[in-house]
Amino acid sequence: VQLQASGGGLVQAGGYLRLSCAASARIFSSYTMGWFRQSPGKEREFVAAIRYSGHTYYADSAKGRFTISRDNAKNTVYLQMNSLKPEDTAVYYCAAAYGVILSRIRIEEAYEYWGQGTLVTVSS
């Protein structure tokens, strides 16, 4: 099982980035896909998740600025990040969870598979 995240980089505040996460077909077909992030000195936190059905969930910090989507034909999940702020600077990880219930969808322990992370740096 592989998750390959990409799309990170350096952007100015107010700018945008789109992260991508390619997954193996075996897990993408039935897994909930999520994005988490970890800033220096902080614990990893939930950003967004999307079920195979397309239902989406967001952290309060992401609502209105970030959009998670998935292309099931390409086995890829995306995180469109707009209006970026310096506090969005972090390593972003994609993850996959099978059969996760709603009450656990924001919890990293519910996710079995993780990508390697991609660094997003937002300059002020």
H/I helix tally: 1
Major beta-sheet overview: 7 strands, mixed
| Alpha carbon gyration radius | 13 Å
Please count the beta strands (DSSP E, at least 2 residues each).
11
Q: What is the rounded distance between the termini? A: 37 Å
Percentage of residues assigned to helices = under 10%
Order of helices and strands: EEEHEEEEEEEE
Strand content: over 45%
Which structural class is indicated by helix and strand composition? mainly beta
In terms of quaternary structure, the protein is single chain
Dominant shape: globular
Poorly predicted regions are none
Average pLDDT across residues?
95
Kindly summarize this structure in a few lines.
With 124 residues, this protein is mainly beta. 3% of the residues lie in helices and 48% in strands.
